[in-house]
Each structure stands twice: as structure tokens, then as C-alpha cells.
Amino acid sequence: MSEIIGLQVYTQNGVFLGNVNNLVVDVDNGSVDGIFVGETNPLLVEGSRAVSVPYRWVQSVGDIVVLRYFPKRVTTKRGAPSLAPAVAK
After folding, report:
1. CA 86 to chain centroid
2. 3-state per-residue secondary structure call for 30-47
3. Degrees (nearest 5) of the Cα angle 74, 44, 38?
4. Residue 85 within any structural domain of the chain
5. Low-confidence ranges of the chain (pLDDT < 50)
6. How far is 12 from 14, CA to CA, in rounded Å?
7. How far is it, in rounded angstroms, from Cα 16 to Cα 10?
8. Number of compact structural domains in the chain
9. Which domain holds residue 33?
10. How much is the pLDDT for 30?
């Protein structure tokens, strides 16, 4: 598993996203749930922020990581509505 850390990550269109900094691991199942990509491409991620990419978006892992899906652009808007469901009071 640790061999993936440090690999370059590319989108399905061949655009460089960043490097794998860490893994998101489900300790109960011992499976990888995602990859943590740091110092991301500012053309893809606003502010070059680190992102956690679900492992189901990974197409292949070899000398590089190729994603089968990544949004065209990830933005962080202030005051954006929360994705968490509202709780009835």
C-alpha cells in the first residue's frame, strides 16, 4: 500500500493533479477508501488545496496514478450551502 505514496496523479484527460501524500484507510476492513493529494494543480483545485479523492475514482496505479473521474474544477465558496442533511428540531 505505501508504494502509492509519492506517485503523481493525473486525470482521465492527462492533466496533472498533484502527488499522493497519504492514504485514507478503512481500518476495520483493511481497504483503501481514498488517496490524499497535496499541492494540487491550481487549474483544477482552487488555491491548490489538498484534496481527498475517493479510491473508486482511481482507474489504475503503476508508475503514476490515473483517475477515471475528477471534476473539471474544485472550488471552495464561502457561505455555500452545507452538504449535510438538515436535522429537524
Report:
1. 26
2. CEEEEEEEECCCCCCEHH
3. 90
4. no
5. 79-89
6. 6
7. 4
8. 1
9. 2-67
10. 86
Burial class (CB in 10 A: 0-12, 13-18, 19+), 84: exposed
Q: Is residue 12 part of a domain?
A: yes
Q: Does residue 89 sit within a domain?
A: no
Residue showing cell 476492513: 29
Cell of 25: 484507510
For 2, residues 6+ apart whose C-beta sits below 8 A from its C-beta are 23
- Could you write out the DSSP letters of every residue in 72-87? S-B---TTPPPSSPP-
Query: pLDDT tens for residues 24-42?
Result: 999 999 899 999 999 999 9
pLDDT of residue 38: 92
Contact 38, 47 (CB under 8 A): no
Residue 88 located in a structural domain: no
